[in-house]
Amino acid sequence: MNQGMEFAYLNRGQNLEIGRTKLMSAERVAAIGAVGRRRRQRGGRLLRRVDRKAAALRFGFFSLLLGYAAITAALYSSRWSDGDGAIFPTVTIFAAPRPFSFAGGRPDLVGARQELAARSWVSLGDEVAVVLFGRDPSISFLASIIGPRVAVESAIDFTFMGTPFFHCMVARALNASSAISLVIDPETILLPNFLTALHCAHKLNGDWFLVSMAPSISNFPFHINDTRKQWLKEDGTIIAVEKLQEYVDQKLQWSSCTKRILMAWNKGEASLLAGILPPFLYGKDFHNEWLLHQVLASNFRSVIDVTYIASAFYPEKLPHYFKNKISIDSANSGWEENGNHYLATLYGSLFSELHGIVSTHFKLIKCSCKHAFLDSMQNVAFYAERTKVHPLGLKLVPYQEIARASFVRRTLNLWVQKKWAHCIQHIHILESQCSLMHLYSNYNRKPKPLFSPFTLESLLQTTKDKDETVVVAVAGDNYKDMLMSWVCRLRHLAIPNFIVCALDAESYEFALLLGLPVFRDPLAPNNISFDDCHFGTVCFQRVTKVKSRLVLQILKLGCNVLLSDVDVYWFSNPLPLLQSFGQAKLIAQSDEYNETGPINLPHRLNSGFYFARADRSTITAIEKVVKHASTSGLSEQPSFYDILCGEDGINRVDDNHCHEPDSNLTVHFLDRNLFPNGAYKGLWEKRNVRSACKKQGCLILHNNWINGRKRKLERQVHSGLWDYDPTMRIGPRAVDPRSLFCQFVHAGGDRRRFLSPPGFQSASSNLSNSSSRKDNGFGTPADLQSGSGAPPPALMRGRRADDANMKDRRRRGGGGKFPRSPSAPSLHLTLFLLCCLLLSAVAFSAFRLFGVFFRVRPVLLPTWRNPTLNAFSGDYPNLRRSPSFHSSPAGFVVEAAVSFPDEVLLFLKPKSIAAGTKLRCLYFLSPSGESQLSLPPVSSSVSGDFIRCPLPPKTDAFNMSLSQTSLPQLPPLLPLRWDIVAYAAVLDPVDNSTVVFAKGHNLRPARLSNPSSFECIFAWDFFHPKYSLSSEAISAAQEIFRCRTPLSVFHRLGHHPTSKSPFVSVRFKAHGSFPLPSIARHDPLFPRLLNHRRKDHRMCVCTMLRNQARFLREWIIYHTHIGVERWFIYDNNSDDDIEQVVKWLSSNWKVKISLLEWPWVKTQEAGFAHCAMRARASCDWVGFIDVDEFIFFPSATIKLQDVLSNYSRMPWIGELRTACHSFGPSGRKTAPPEGVTAGYTCRIAPPERHKSIIRPEALNPSLINIVHHFHLKDGMKYVNMDARTMVINHYKYQAWEVFKEKFFRRVATYVVDWREEENVGSKDRAPGLGTKAVRPSDWATRFCEVNDTGLRDRVLKKILLQ
């Protein structure tokens, strides 16, 4: 080897180094080799490390791409799959087959058509389910032979003849859990192409309504095999679906277009129509056309006509079933068609807008084996492809864009244009022969008169049970709501053997249109009062005599009768018990209210619930009762007792039986524990009436012993014993599906409404409003146009377990889908979770790489210090938006509008309007939102807090606004009702409670109610509250509710008295109840009472008056002379310049008078309670007397201050009750110019009633009073003043021109107006005058028994001395 040369070689993977010139030693060579090996090992490890990282990065990158692609494909498939994919929308088909018979073991022609049609529906696919409505056994048989996917439901409403109600069918379809609902004629056959049409519609972005007519086909020689999957010819060979469709296309008779329509819609957000669906009878014409027209007129959904894909048709002959031609039977009845025609002309716009609205938005056509949507107006076709260009996600057919395309593309697509033009032309030809417009031809716009072919005899044969027994109810228009609740209850108990006797035309039409077995009594009295036909009235006496005469007529026809008033609530079926008593017995309810002692005392036989058998003894006795009642001036109830038990009970046998000797009839009084009346054990006053009655074992509960239709309805509704919602026209659904009674289902469901007619307010308000509805109980026709319907209640939802979540699943894209492959959902779910996992890993890795960290910040949740208060949020439909939002450009603010019987009050924000500002009252009388009437206001309050506007003429529902011009400056307000509103509230500083004055709960007079049934609601805005507070009621009586004040509200009023206080309302604590509408805010805080602080005044007087300014001077001046120091005057809508009189008295006589404008009608008790709270801080004693009442001390040595000082030393005395002497006209024919006290000197000898002077601190916290006296605290006593010490001269019966004003309005809550036929013999009335303000000829000399000149002499002497 040459020295100085360098070389290297590789031997078994090791490098050796050689020196240049000198010889290296072995040790040197070994050391160098070791170093080289170590270097090579480090380099290899580094290379291997770099290779693994690169491979991992490449693998992760490709895995992410693959996962992203798989997830995208899966989600895209899940979202956009159509007829060729794996997932389809679920479809439920609803139909109401006609009952059919069997011939030779096979169904007749009607049954054969319906069987073939149902088989064709099921053969469409596994995603299709069928629901049949019916009660006939033949329909159950039809469902059983088709398969498990066909169900029978009988939970909707039927007439007593078995005809289903169309609106109930639609309601059931609207609440189905499937993605698509379809209502179809039971004899219409569907081909698979129709399912494709549903899939095309389901692809649309918006909500839709699909409709198709069903042309007829003369001969259809095909049927479906037992597997329900293949169509067969007559010889049994299989025919392909494509060939079957071709046969139908050729054989359809387009010129003989039938009125059979099928309608389908998706389960979307939009309502079908604005308003409600009237109770059409299914299959009796008009209902399909009416619904289609209203859907088009409402324009909530896109309407698609799929008639021309020829996939729905009606077969006339079925050779496979019948070889001979059989005529088609028509089941329509004239009287039922007339009812549907009447409803169609009365409601909606079907007969007013026939032309221009019946054109649908799109037609679904098939051209070149493709389905497309044809715009009916512009002849433009679209594919159902998901795009963002069209609102519904439609894409133009290519030939539509030819004009904008290039020359080459235009040439290539020329044949496409010709093909589509030919298809559209063919559709137009078919449309000329059969279109939806043909449905509306030859319609008579004039409603036909309603009639029923059923007489009493035929109704009895139809409705009586196997024991020849019927249940009879008698009702007029005033009790139709209660009648419907009674009917709902009987249907819930499965008691079909009842009939209804209508007393007037309104109730007859109402019951007939709702399918009740009703007949009109030709001998019923006319002019039945709507609101005042209850116990004690002349109207009540006339109506009750109809019942006994009707029972006698039915007994003579051979039927047993259970007569039940409609105010009787049935817990169970009492017929088995009543029928067990045997012959010659009349079983009646007892009206005795004492819990012990006899129950058959005089006049304790209740003729509103009794059972009578059709035997000779009973008929003879009832004949005597009818004869006696016809000549009696009372109701039939006293006649029942006087005849059957004898006058004064001489025919009583023991404590619960009577025996009528002439007829040998025994009267058995029912056990009151099983059949309680309205006063027994105070059951109606229980907190949970239903639970109390069931615990006692009640079979029924009579809602009697209460006066007034409104109060009776309110009591039954609030107790929960109510099975019919007049607001929604729907019966609540209980556990038993037979209790579903869906009269007037709100198919619209749009809450955004401009008008709110009386028929669609809250339950309480609607009950009170029934007097203003003369529309057969179905709302006004304008309701259907104004969108005033409300959605069906939650109780109608949940027909299946997943109904409540259907809308959310539909929104997410998964609801209503039918999986054909069970593995598809799990695969999609797995891929979705994998995607989330990968994205989460990447996200957290990125956050960590960039140094982003998260910290959780603790949040302090507020808690309430008072455990009795509950914070909640919500939306109350009955409460209007806070008025503070309605401000005008002129600066004034309208806070609320309240409608009274003779005027409308618009309440303004205090000091928001300058004095002398000229305003106009604007009325909005239609749903258009335009002001249709402008009237000047009647007057304005002195303080400027409210404006009085006249009522608009001839309208029940209207909105109002206020403006300085004839144009609106403020949004319109819907006036609240004066008798259903919380109208005042006072903060009591003694116990920091809030006293609320509210109308609408109609509590009983002079009695405390259970406060645990009520709670107060505090909110600044009830319509959209940020938060609201509820507080338990401490006391409840009459119209006065006391609740604990929430601490936040109390502190706000205490520390910021000038800030706006919240509204206060009262709510009945029951399921589904809402607070009363409210305009009540807290009055300013009163100064706290100090224990040793002397009050400013010894004696104050409080009064409420209306148009008494001419008598006010004399009254105040006189009482000022005797020692009254302070006056609280509540002005109840006076228009006689009373403020000028008060101003004159204050300036000339230095009298301290507080004049408060109190516009609330019939609230004297509440006004006096309000006054007692106001006067408590400054008055030791407060007298409550009227302007025609004068305190008089017969002895000249006795002074008012002496009397009060004497009793002030007795702290247990809280009230001084003073007798009233009633003075008559005293020969005066005109008002005496010398004054009341000097002009009237003749009076009645005995005193009438009394008036009170009270110590405010001694009053019961409930503030309950009956005008004449208050209830006191426990331990406090009252004193009846000696007439020789102090009396009150009550100048009640003055000259006729003054006295007649008492007829027109009474201010007390529980005192009826004298023109009403109720409590005619009350001491509050003038004896012998009756109900008409007609001057008796001897009026001037009446009521004169004692000549009393004591007060006259005292007054004249005082004047002479001055």
UniProtKB/TrEMBL annotation:
Its main location: Golgi. GO terms for biological process: cell wall organization. Residues 495-715 form the Nucleotide-diphospho-sugar transferase domain. It is found in: Golgi apparatus membrane; Membrane. The chain crosses the membrane at residues 55-76. One of its GO terms (molecular function) is glycosyltransferase activity. GO terms for cellular component: Golgi membrane. Residues 762-771 have a biased composition (Low complexity). Residues 760-823 are annotated as: Disordered. It is a single-pass type II membrane protein. The keyword rRNA processing does not apply. It is an enzyme of class 2 (transferase). Pfam families: Glyco_transf_92 (PF01697), Nucleotid_trans (PF03407). Keywords: Cell wall biogenesis/degradation, Glycosyltransferase, Golgi apparatus, Membrane, Signal-anchor, Transferase, Transmembrane, Transmembrane helix. Belongs to the glycosyltransferase 92 family. Belongs to the glycosyltransferase 77 family. This is Glycosyltransferase. The lineage of its organism: Eukaryota, Viridiplantae, Streptophyta, Embryophyta, Tracheophyta.
